[in-house]
Design a protein that fits this description.
Blueprint (H helix, E strand, L loop, with lengths): L2 H8 L5 E14 L5 E16 L4 H11 L3 E10 L4 E9 L7 E5 L2 H15 L2 H14 L1
Antiparallel strand pairs: 1-2, 1-3, 1-5, 3-4
Amino acid sequence: MFPSVMKAVTGREFAAKKARVKNCARFKVKGESYPGLTPLKGAETEGVLYMDLDALSVKRLDDFEGELYERTEIPADTLEGESLTAQTYAIKAQYRDRLSSKEWDPTHFEKADLLEFMNTYSGFVNTATACDEEKKV
């Protein structure tokens, strides 16, 4: 959702559109500041749809998200009314018990947690390791 995280992970900037997905909700992961997206009938979740990602950036995102999440395709609607297919990272079914019942608030995260997240989240280590391996090839 945050361009600074996207750039830190992929090393690139991408055009983005605000979008909404239906039948999905975002809850805080227990003991963490970040969310997990999960299916929930009737829910609607707003986020950011990044456009035209290259394969290397997608690989880096996969590494960043780690074992807890899986990349899936879902329908999304931009806030301008355009319907698209989006790829999102949803928490895997076997890890849904790690979600709290508290909805994740991106505004609160940006103000209170983003800086610490950028400095401490282990996914950045996974991405850096993947980048080092790419250089060896």
